Amino acid sequence: MNFKTPKSTSLDLSKWTTVSTRLVKSEGKREPEWVEWSILDSLWHKFYSSYFLLYKCQPGAEVDSVLPIDRLTGSLGKSLEHFYPFAGRLLKPEKDQVARLFCNNAGAPFTHKRFDGVVSDLMDVEQFEPNELISGLYDVHPAAELFDASGVPTLIIQVTDFKCGTRCLSTSWSHTVADGFSGTHFLTSWAQIARGEPISLLPVHNRSLLMPRKSSRVLDGGACRFLHNVIEEPAVLQLALAEEGIGFRTFKLSRRRMDELKAEALRDSQVGPLSTADCVSAHLWRLITEKRGHAPHELTRFITLVNCRSRLRDFPAGYFGNCIAVTILPVTVGELLSNSLGHAATIMHKTIEELNEDVIRDFMDWLSVGKFQWSALGDEPFMHGDPSSNLHTVQASWQNRFPFYELDFGGGRPYLALRNGFRMSEFSTGMFFALPTSTTSTEGDLSISIFGEKNMLGRFDDEL
């Protein structure tokens, strides 16, 4: 395999030692097969999802007591029998084509490393900045535009040992192969096998369940009802580069602050009950837009990623792949900021509630006729509405229900789980991720990581 290493890095490599590397393959025997993407898979062909978990061993104990390497690799091989796309490769038949998935059991790269220092030497867990050296993606770099004949892995694992008795488990997977729900389904199943338990929910690999219909109003040329907006012909959304660069900033959002935001929004709600996600998302949309300083007449969009498994009739809960739709809510900056928090939360709530079976199927039909696609000539996505700039967009990924803190591989649960979101596209500028906080925090608190322009992030106070 020809793993590509980035040309430059500001990270110190002198404290790192590679203990071992291996390819973990499925223990089952399957004939190699090509897997066709569903229409929803095709939205994510340039992205990897990367997370890490920190486990602490008892004083005086060896780090192998919390995450034994042999147990991890043995149970991973058994897990890949069920989640076999994660043992495959992404291959590009031609330079400008989208990569295809070949389930050939080439194996998931598994690297064991040692860092000469403690966790706090490498990262500030309260103000975490993404770090590729703990992800495995530094050595097995999946972002190369040109794949060699062996392709690139769909799943990458790295275990890192620290002098403080902490062991870090990092997992990174191709978003085209699996969304966050399928990725954490795999992690849950892997942990169950490591504990000697049966898998509680078997994966379903039938991606034809999300293929476009043979006939529909949208396929016949009619308008696509994307919630209460009508999507017409798309335009190219030019990806603007922030002059000051882009970065991450992580905030803690307390349960108390979320309750305050919810109470404020409910005072002016037009739909009755609002979820915490409605209220916090509306607050962050308004806050990010305010910090950007756009003029009142300019357009701002809010994009939410929504798990559709429970919104589709008779759809298997264990579906493995991408089953996420995006809701796009465009308003003017003036409307967003001159009205109350409750107004923004209300229109957001209505938008998400209207995402039913018919709308989701319309959306997939709309995608299938090329209304949204990634340009073969560059990174510009096609999108409806004002095509001026990605710097007018705010995006949300709510991951607070992902079961990171339940991932016990036989030696205890992690004390911290974080998203390691480096190498994100300029298209994702203005995106925030909501995750549960560490086990030492108050129950119900959230960790909010915002990816965006450095000037905008610098205008935030320490609290949200």
Task: Record keyword descriptors for this entry.
464 residues, Plant_Fungal_Acyltransferase, CAT-like_dom_sf, disordered N terminus, 6-stranded mixed beta sheet, 2 domains, 9 helices, Chloramphenicol Acetyltransferase, single chain, alpha+beta, 21% helix, 25% strand
What does this structure look like?
- With 464 residues, this protein is α+β, with helices and mostly antiparallel strands.
- It folds into 2 domains: 16-210, Chloramphenicol Acetyltransferase (2-Layer Sandwich); 224-458, Chloramphenicol Acetyltransferase.
- It is 21% helix and 25% strand.
- It contains 9 helices and 20 strands.
- It has helices spanning 69-82, 119-122, 180-194, 255-266, 276-292, 333-338, 341-353, 357-368, 454-458, and strands spanning 16-24, 33-35, 48-56, 89-91, 100-103, 108-115, 152-153, 155-161, 166-174, 224-226, 229-231, 235-236, 246-253, 299-307, 324-332, 382-383, 393-398, 416-419, 431-436, 446-453.
- Strands 1-6-8-9-3-18 form a 6-stranded mixed sheet, with helices on one face.
- Helix 1 packs across helix 3 (180-194).
- The protein is globular, with a radius of gyration of 22 Å.
- The N and C termini lie far apart (45 Å).
- Residues 1-10 and 375-382 have low confidence and may be disordered.
The CATH class designation of the largest domain is Alpha Beta
Which sheet architecture does the biggest sheet show? 6 strands, mixed
Write the CATH homologous superfamily of the largest domain.
Chloramphenicol acetyltransferase-like domain
For the record, the count of structural domains works out to: 2
Q: Quick check: average pLDDT? A: 85
